[in-house]
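Final report, closing paragraph on structural work. Over the funding period we assembled a curated collection of sequence-structure pairs, and we close with a single example.
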Amino acid sequence: MQGNVPFALLLSLLAGLATGIGSAAAYFIRKPRTSHMSLILGFSAGVMLYISFAELLHAAFENIGFVTANVGFFAGIAFIAILDILIPHEYKQERITDALHSKQESLSPFPSVGQAARLKRTGILTALGIAIHNLPEGLVVFSSAVTGDMTFGLLVAVAISVHNIPEGISVSVPIFEATGSRRQAFLYSFSAGLAEPLGALIGYAVLFPFLTPTLIYVLLAFAAGIMVYISLDELLPTAHLYGEEHMVIIGVVAGMLVMTASIFLLR
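Its predicted structure, as stored:
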């Protein structure tokens, strides 16, 4: 088992670096337009919701049971809700005003001050959620490669890498729209991806002697709760303030379809 440790750590690092591909999306946007955000944020919500229910929570149900999985899931929701309350909400009073003017402002190359504050906060919260959910994913990749067949570990790493690309987009694009800084957008998003190898290192240095399948799946259910909360409380409400509302559901369905196709192709 110890001989597989370097390979397992490498797989976790590569899976986390896949977020950088999505992070680079900001470098390919010539001119930020708020009209793009309803589609992009809807897509991001679709990706996160589908991953949470179809993969993370589903896997927890199958391996640790309905009750334990739900305890982890709602603990994740409670955790991010408390964190959300502690984060300043200065822009909340401007939400209605921004919504009334969103159609006109969507023609402008940059968002208003209120929209920018909301977008940046959404991007940062999304980055936090992805970083937290990447920690147990890093543990999953590490444990799969260390305790099982190397081929199985490689397949798990590839599957997670595919998921990490749109996750990188979901962080970098809102922050770029809010700040106009490609560098800042890339760094926030890329940093979220680095939580993947960090999770593997934690698993090796701290949790490895105590790591059990039950603990791994509780952590995945916890991460699912975080991602569902962010999708419903941040991504979708913000998405509806920009462009046509039908673009939001198109983005949500497109995100789910991309995740469906990636899972199907990797099985």
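The two ends are 25 Å apart (CA to CA). The longest helix spans residues 113-147. We thank the funder for supporting this effort.
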